[in-house]
Amino acid sequence: MEQGQSFKQILKATSLFGGVQVFNILISMVRSKFIALFIGPLGMGISSLLLATIGVLNALTNLGLERSAVKEISFSKENKSEHSIERSVGVLERLVSITSIVGTFIMILASPLLSKIAFGNYDYILHIGAVSAALFFTQLTQGKLAILQGLRQLQGLAKANLWGNFIGLLITVPLYYYFRIDAIVPAIILAAALSFVITFYYNRLHGVTHERLSAKEAFAYGKPMIHLGIMLSLSSIITLIVAYIIQVFISSSGGLNEVGLYNAGFLIMNTYVGLVFTAMGTDYFPRLSAIANDVEKTNKAVFEQAYIAVLLIVPIITIFLAFAPQFIEILYSKAFAPIVGFVSWGILGMLFKAVSFSMGYILIAKGDSKLFIRTAIGFNALLLIANVIGYTYGGLNGLGISFFLYYIVHYVVLHLLTRKVYEFRFDSSFYPVFLTSILICALAYVSSQWNYILGRYLVMAVLIIISCLFSLYFLDKKIDVKQTLKKLLKR
Description:
Helix content is 87%, strand content 0%. By secondary structure, it is mainly α.
């Protein structure tokens, strides 16, 4: 693929899944609003704890197949081996059918214990047992989505995600309206079942076929997939544990109010700004996995992804820093004003995350599970220590600084690691763009702290214009921006 075409493909995929992510966020906001209106704080609490329980059981029982399978399928597709594709898909289908059943039974059997852990009593045993059906459908859905992602059926993947969430909203909101708190369990099960039906439809629509395998054959052929998947699952579990410890520490030091503020700020960084990373990863991971054995192609793909990521996120960071108080008030309320400093520092770190994100996928694409789990443990331990120190000495602002410094260290370590182990090198044209981006973001942060309001907004307005022109100029050097935007808007 020519370089211009590669950049266009990245921009196309990012815009496609970025748009889907925006719609999903809007749908989530609407759903939360209606749920809050119809079932109140108590209902929201019950719903949140049931969904969190499903999430934990899913992470513990799905063997990480929804990510490791993407690597296997995309590699087979790149090598144009139809039989290998059908076998990889067959392995995934069989393994997911097993893990979904096992996970469901574990959830039913453990429902008394889970009720006690989540709710502090045994009143919700039947609720947890019933929503185990949602866990079953969730794992099946993740398997179908992994197939579409591995085959790089981007349109089908985007539509399946979007329609699954949208139809789920249309069906569940009337349930909450008519049955109020009694609708929680049926709504959760129905939403999961509908998502599965829609993803099943898009798999059939794109002519996905698979080799029929016995359970024994699936485990034999799927050993690499299972091994990598377990490592990825362990990484996710470690991340969840660290996030939990950080919240417990904040709660014990500053109270529940501080925990709420922390979660609100974290959500802004990782959901609203972080949607860029979600959008990139959906296309980037299978594309990188397909060429992971070729050093030159890998270097080129990572450079292109990092280049686009930096140019896309610089204007976002600059605009957010200019209007952080207003954004936070719109998303939450004036009561959340204390997180402005926390989020501003954390947002600065997103620039370094954009690059380390691109490099970090090399480890997964290579299937280097041992190195991946070591780095996951090391980075999570570092994040925990940094957050504890940051919050202890600086409160929420200190927490933001700790995130910022962590992302810098994360970038430096991954750069050195991938250079030594995988011979990774950025194209020389990347560094001037990256350094200029750092300078623009640093100036934006300094300007956002100026107490003279008129001067602050004048300078920030100039920096926003500079950041946008900067990104457009360097994007245009790789692709025809005007023509590409026309095509994207038509889509």
